[in-house]
Amino acid sequence: MRAEQLKGHLDTLLLAALEDGPRHGYAVMEALRRATGGRLDLPTGTIYPALRRLETAGLIKGSWSVVGGRQRRDYRLTAAGARALSGKRADWRDFAAMMSAALERRPCPDPA
Amino acid sequence: MPGPCLIRDYLGELSAQLPAGIVAELASGLDETCGHYLGQGLDPDAATRAAIAEFGDPQVVVEAFTRTSPARQAARRLLATGPVAGLCWGAALVGGRAWTWSVPVTARVLFGAALITVAGLLAAAAVGRRYRAVSRAGTAGCVGIAALDAAMLAAVTFAAPVVAWPLILAAGASAARISFTAWALRPVLVS
């Protein structure tokens, strides 16, 4: 899957990748690859601006640390980020249910 | 070309266009990516090439940072809300017969020229493709718009004979814009 197809959803994926605990940029990309069975195909370098944007929005917080003699910047979800992820996840479930109902002629579940 | 040279060239291209803090993070990420490929058994040169290929073309990375630059976001918001503030001031100045106020013609001309310059700077930040140019234009545009708002507030305080509600509304819009600009400039100055 290419970046243009992800438009609007990359932020949600990044927040989800940080849900289990702090990660640095490359680990976030690895987590997304694992979670999507390798189907997510983004230049790793483009993950970093998205992480910075989420940090500016107060949804994640970055901090420098030294691990094994290497400097790296880890990101963790903030309380606002956790709330945003929860809301985006609910929105996605509604959207996916609606699209499945329309495209695959499945009954649309009642909204919660 | 050996791996370290490739990395140096790649980071050099990024350093020419991005702030040091961002490049340091990208260097660390590139290091992690190299480590990943070395762990998979690739030799150092192949690992470096694979890491650079995975990171993406430097120009693509720079453009991704430019698109999400805080300066660009601030400039776009100020341009989007500019017409509202302009309408408020237009109504207030026409209603208050501003042409009768004791403001020197030179000051009026300078204000107009500054307004056009600031709008140009914000437009450059909103559509520019070079990170540093976008940051500089956005920062200057934000500071400029706050200064113009402050000048308008000072002008109505000292020159307006009567303070009517359209003037209060316009002054409120300017005060809100000064607050927004101060808030928006924080990440611009940090980045």
What is the gist of this entry?
Chain A has 112 residues and is an alpha+beta fold. Chain A is 49% helix and 16% strand.
Biggest pleated-sheet summary of chain A: 3 strands, antiparallel
How are strands sequenced across the largest beta sheet of chain A?
1-3-2
The biggest beta sheet of chain B reads: none
Low-confidence stretches of chain B: none
Helices, strands, pairings?
The complex is a heterodimer of chains A (112) and B (191).
Chain A: H1 10-17, E1 23-24, H2 25-35, H3 47-56, E2 60-67, E3 70-77, H4 79-104
Antiparallel strand pairs in A: 1-3, 2-3
Chain B: H1 3-15, H2 20-39, H3 44-55, H4 58-67, H5 70-95, H6 105-127, H7 131-159, H8 165-190
Helix pairs in contact in B: 1-2, 1-3, 1-4, 2-3, 5-6, 5-7, 5-8, 6-7, 7-8
List keywords for this structure.
A: alpha+beta, three-stranded antiparallel sheet, 4 helices, 16% strand, elongated, B: mainly alpha, 8 helices, 83% helix
Characterization of this structure:
The complex is a heterodimer of chains A (112) and B (191). Chain A is α+β, with helices and mostly antiparallel strands. Helices cover 49% and strands 16% of the residues of chain A. Chain A is built from four helices and three strands, in the order αβααββα. Chain A has helices at 10-17, 25-35, 47-56, 79-104; strands at 23-24, 60-67, 70-77. A three-stranded antiparallel β-sheet of chain A has the order 1-3-2. In chain A, β2 (60-67) and β3 form a beta hairpin. Chain B is mainly alpha-helical. Chain B is 83% helix and 0% strand. Chain B has eight helices and no strands.
